[in-house]
Amino acid sequence: MHWATLVDVDALAVALGDPGLRLVDARFALMDPAAGRQAYLQSHLPGAAHADLNEDLSDLSHRDLGRHPLPDDAAFARKLGEWGIGPEHQVVVYDAGDGSMAAARLWWMLRLLGHRRVAVLDGGFAAWRARGLPETAEPGGIIPLPAYPARFDARLIADADEVRRRLDQDSGWLFDARAPERFRGDVEPIDLVAGHVPGAINRPFGANLREGRFKSSSELHAELAPMLAGRRPDDLVLMCGSGVTACHLLLAFEHAGLSGARVYAGSWSGWITDPSRPVERTAS
């Protein structure tokens, strides 16, 4: 096993039970934060731990950094140890379906620690269940380990100061993964201000999918590469509403072979905490 972006249900089913495999269930619903944990308790992949977006993959005390600020890396490292994850393991993360809530977020956070053998289950729990593959409501029987021996690589995380410094650059370096109507500012059902960072390009994360699964690497490359307008992938910054679906867009870039983009962790909800930061709205 050496999966670093996506893995399909058939490949994972063959590897199920391998002592080097670790599974994490990251199902979450923004409008019902308890739903993911409840779904996990009802049924999950055998041996899977559960990761909660709000409690395990964020630190909600940092309100000035958006709706889902990154947690302290030492706390996250301890949580990985509780899930029995060490540097030697192949990790597979899944959520209810397309990876956006919140499998790709955990995938990115492990990569921030330098862990490369981590992949998202393409199609998630829905694809697994559709194939009639094993499920259980039993606890995972996880054997805890010491805290994961690494810290976040801050060079891989963009912040508001960097985004603001680069606003005078030609567009093509900042991508926003939100739905088009939220990006334009037609509606804003979650955050207090509608619109987007001036100069950002909208690439809704759903555009990377077909019927709940990622498009092929070649198809994504054909769609994404021209959007770079000659820039190198490592010049890109990706954002969304709160730094969650931006990770899904990063996964799409990586799956397409366009490696090196970084995520603006605070994203739109962090950007608008400072009223001096410019906001743009565009006509539908």
Can you put this structure into words, describing what you see?
There is one protein chain. Strand 2 (21-25), helix 2 and strand 3 (49-50) form a beta-alpha-beta unit. The model has no long low-confidence stretch (mean pLDDT 97). The chain has helices at residues 9-15, 35-42, 73-82, 103-112, 124-130, 160-165, 180-184, 217-224, 245-255, 267-271, and strands at 6-7, 21-25, 49-50, 90-94, 118-121, 157-158, 174-176, 201-202, 209-210, 213-214, 237-239, 262-264. The protein folds into 2 domains: 6-152, Rhodanese-like domain (Oxidized Rhodanese, domain 1); 155-271, Oxidized Rhodanese, domain 1, CATH 3.40.250.10. Strands 1-5-4-2-3 form a 5-stranded parallel β-sheet. A 5-stranded parallel β-sheet has the order 6-12-11-7-8. It is built from 10 helices and 12 strands. Helix 4 crosses helix 9 (245-255). It is globular. By secondary structure, the protein is α/β, with parallel strands linked by helices.
